[in-house]
Write a structure and sequence with these properties.
alpha/beta; CofD-like_dom_sf; Putative gluconeogenesis factor; 14 strands; CofD; LPPG:FO 2-phospho-L-lactate transferase activity; Gluconeogen_factor; 340 residues
């Protein structure tokens, strides 16, 4: 008698690329799913505690990496709260610094070989479920040319300029050409799905893609490339942008139409809900241009991905991740009804 066993389907390999506050929202939701997650995190941040540490110790800015570590950690909540704690002391050194930032900087200095291995050690200590890869082993500088032809360097300077951005690129503190560590490229090339965002288009997502071997890998991978479009436009960065405009900028920077699928929130933000003083970078809700997306070869998944809390506008991580997981079992030829 012959016995047949049903082969087990391996968990999908999903690479999430970005930075800022949007990335941890998605990663926390992914922890509840059966998937092999790799977070590729920007290293071009130069503001706040990260910027101060970067200036004094000359390490990769740790803030975005710290938030991702906390999002994927399986430690008890009290330990994660300690790791995330930010001093409110009036002391000139401690004020504003998060404990996790100092730990990451200390491990980087102890290892002496850059931040990548330090993050891998810390990930083990924090019982991280998945992989966390700083996109580069050295700090990078974000550069921008604006619509008026002027240029600025430094992510915080660019964000504060309040001028419309034409193009961004990254440079290394050394004279070497910026490059991602091999583990990042390998993860992208062997992924089933690449997720971009959610996050600031020019200052969280593109700094990763502007590293030449990262951009090339994203264009070469057989994985489905999914862009989670922002819900709100941002001052200086994406004023009056539609969802198709966001994708157009991404495609233009990489020189080809590489986005396969776009997740779009269609739930209106209630009038006067957003606290514009607290979230002063946000302007208007992103407009929809499905025809413009179709012209760029994208399929659209449109739904209520909105979460409102504390007079802020966010993506609902669970809703987004549920849709991303469904995509791992759908063929690329599938198009939803909203798109037609």
């Amino acid at each position: 008698m012959t016995f047949y066993t049903k082969a087990k389907r391996r968990p999908p390999r999903i690479v999430v690329i970005g930075g800022g506050t949007g990335l941890p929202v998605i990663l926390r939701a992914f922890r509840q799913q059966k998937a092999e997650i790799t977070a590729v995190v920007t290293v071009a941040d130069d503001g706040g505690s990260s910027g101060v540490i970067r200036d004094f110790i000359n390490v990769v800015p740790p803030g975005d990496i710290r938030n991702v570590l906390a999002a994927l950690s399986n430690l008890p909540e009290i330990y994660k709260k300690i790791f995330q704690y930010r001093f409110d002391s009036q002391d000139k050194f401690f004020s504003g610094h998060a404990i996790g930032n100092l730990i990451i900087a200390a491990l980087s200095e102890m290892n002496g070989d850059g931040i990548f291995n330090a993050v891998q050690e810390l990930a083990k200590m924090m019982k991280v479920d998945g992989h966390i890869y700083p996109v580069s082993n050295e700090p990078l500088v974000l550069n921008a040319v604006f619509k008026d032809g002027t240029q600025l360097s430094g992510e915080s300077e660019i964000s504060a300029a309040g001028k419309m951005i034409e193009r961004v690129w990254v440079t290394a503190a050394t004279n070497k050409r910026p490059a991602a560590v091999p583990e990042v490229i390998d993860a992208i090339l062997h992924a089933d799905q690449i997720v971009l965002g959610p996050g600031s288009l020019f200052t969280s997502i593109l700094p990763n893609l502007m590293i030449s071997n990262v951009g090339a890998a994203v264009c070469q991978t057989q994985a489905e490339v999914v862009y989670i479009c922002n819900i709100m436009t941002q001052k200086g960065e994406t004023e009056h942008f539609s969802d198709a405009d966001h994708v157009r900028v991404l495609n233009r920077h990489l020189g080809k139409n590489f986005i396969d699928t776009v997740l779009v929130n269609t739930q209106p933000v209630p009038h006067d809900y957003l606290d514009h003083q607290k979230y002063d970078e946000y302007l208007y809700q992103v407009k929809h241009d499905f025809n413009g997306l179709r012209a760029q070869g994208c399929r659209v998944i449109s739904d209520n991905f909105l979460e409102l809390r504390g007079h802020g506008v966010f993506h609902n991580g669970n809703q987004v991740v549920d849709e991303l997981m469904k995509l791992t079992s759908r063929p690329l030829s599938w198009i939803d009804d909203e798109f037609n």
